[in-house]
Amino acid sequence: MAVTIKDIAERVGVSVTTISRVLNNRGYLSDKLKKKVQGAMEELNYQPNELARSLSRKKSNVIGLIVPDISHPFFGQLTKHIEYYAYKHGYKLMLCNSLLNKKKEKEYIELLRASQVDGIIMGSHTMKVEDYMAIKLPLVTLDRRISDAIPYVSSDNYKGGALATKLLIRKRCRKIAYLSGSLQLNLLAKQRHDAFMEQVGRQSVDYVVRQTDLNGFKYKEYEALVRELFDEHPDIDGVFASSDLLALQVVRESRRRGKSIPGDLKVIGYDGIQNGGAEELTTIEQPIQEMGKLAVLRLLQQMAGEETPLETILPVRLLERGTT
Amino acid sequence: MAVTIKDIAERVGVSVTTISRVLNNRGYLSDKLKKKVQGAMEELNYQPNELARSLSRKKSNVIGLIVPDISHPFFGQLTKHIEYYAYKHGYKLMLCNSLLNKKKEKEYIELLRASQVDGIIMGSHTMKVEDYMAIKLPLVTLDRRISDAIPYVSSDNYKGGALATKLLIRKRCRKIAYLSGSLQLNLLAKQRHDAFMEQVGRQSVDYVVRQTDLNGFKYKEYEALVRELFDEHPDIDGVFASSDLLALQVVRESRRRGKSIPGDLKVIGYDGIQNGGAEELTTIEQPIQEMGKLAVLRLLQQMAGEETPLETILPVRLLERGTT
């Protein structure tokens, strides 16, 4: 029986898709992989099927990207960078907006699988660990460590939380609020909260913690959260918000109440969204471009059957501006 | 020779893809179309090929969406709504970020065609009319009228420009600046400028017009634009900016110069981006959700071979807030 691509794949220990890419010189290919495939082809005396190859060549390289909310500036920017690097390597992007809906996330993964995407980048995390483990496709997650088998890319959340809290303490805040998305989801962003708690504990600073509901990203919820905070704790003199959007709501509400910033209240956000608008918002900048670039790289490395680092944690940066 | 799907398609006067969808009951199908196809099948005595149908059934419904910059809040929100309605009708989204790069836009359209997408929504406009006419796929454009053959969806730019300018005049501005993206591109957004000119002419109000370069969406450019404007025309007392992002830069720069808003300077933006941040920005709200919904609907109607209205112009709304 004639030797097929499947036999080559088995011999080399990678997927059929990967062999196909090598034969068609498509996408990210390491020299090591190319040598292995060449070697296997010679050993097995493989005669390529030109028709199959030309059909294969028509196959479009697609990566699936699932985000919770594309209209959130952080995800808008992240998607921009992921699209850029994916395109650079010859891959197109299939975008799914999960809106934190578990059913939609699951359905979308099925659709992506049926569409024969080469891999998936997960920026949305509603499913259980077992569900992610069951996805038989190259996978990279953002901001969440699911298992020892699925690589993830993140920025240094703990450091970011520490930098932000220390700054407020250094600026002599006596009662600091930490505002975040839900702390129940097992996301790496929770480490910002852990760092906050460590710092306020160490310095014996008074503090308050408030979280939005599980269905984060609803801007009206942010408004309500901030109002309640100020109603219940009018003596707060520092706020660390876990996103710039949340921080901007704090600035807005403070103005309404006649509190001056940074005079009466110091505010620090998180993300470092470029178009922060009219505010010179002090914030912790996430390296969004690098995160996008590395998410794509880790996925390509997996697709190429290469050893891929489990964790990629990128440094954050404190941007001290006008609100502290 | 056996009757094929192609024969049915010719008889009905639609594409093979459309017939395939009817046979597989996939996507948006009008009763009128279904009846036509049924009738043609009976007339021609068509015997469906089950293998071909099952292969066809595995085909994923995909719509291509090309935007200039997904990180721009307007396009982030638009994409969110397009994705939502596409998904609702069983279509997945392939996202392209053109960054206003003509070569990339052209390449992407080729890739989408090779991927056999069912249609394309164009939100990015760098190519010439002939190039768009040459795309042999269902097509809908946003904010640009390309020809009498390609449906477009827009909001009422002229009305929006008039509402904004009239408001500033009503608030007794004596020297008004209009700030916009490039006025060279033949976009419907240019009508905001036309309305502005009409109003300032009518009321004999002093005015200045400034435009960013062709490569809009670069936030540093906005900063420079606004600074130059205030340096050259410190007596400006009203600004109509053609995007909220631009308006926020104006607010920022005004603060830096110690100008109070709205006291010394009245500012109105455009778009009505939800997360305008800390500002109570007066703006002209575009019905972004409706635009997304109708862009998808128009594309589906085309795919179904139905008569599709050439122009869909949705109403805008003045949101009077704290900056005027």
From TrEMBL, chains A, B:
Signal peptide start-end: none
Pfam families on file: LacI, Peripla_BP_1
Database matches in SUPFAM superfamilies: lambda repressor-like DNA-binding domains, Periplasmic binding protein-like I
Domain of life (superkingdom): Bacteria
GO molecular function: DNA binding
Native source species: Cohnella yongneupensis
HTH lacI-type domain sequence ranges: 3-57
CDD domains membership: HTH_LacI (cd01392), PBP1_Qymf-like (cd06291)
Name this polypeptide is given: LacI family DNA-binding transcriptional regulator
Annotated ranges, domain HTH cro/C1-type: 4-51
Classification of source organism: Bacteria, Bacillati, Bacillota, Bacilli, Bacillales
UniProt entry keywords in alphabetical sequence: DNA-binding, Repressor, Transcription, Transcription regulation
Coiled coil: none
InterPro entries: Cro/C1-type_HTH (IPR001387), HTH_LacI (IPR000843), Lambda_DNA-bd_dom_sf (IPR010982), Peripla_BP/Lac1_sug-bd_dom (IPR001761), Peripla_BP_I (IPR028082)
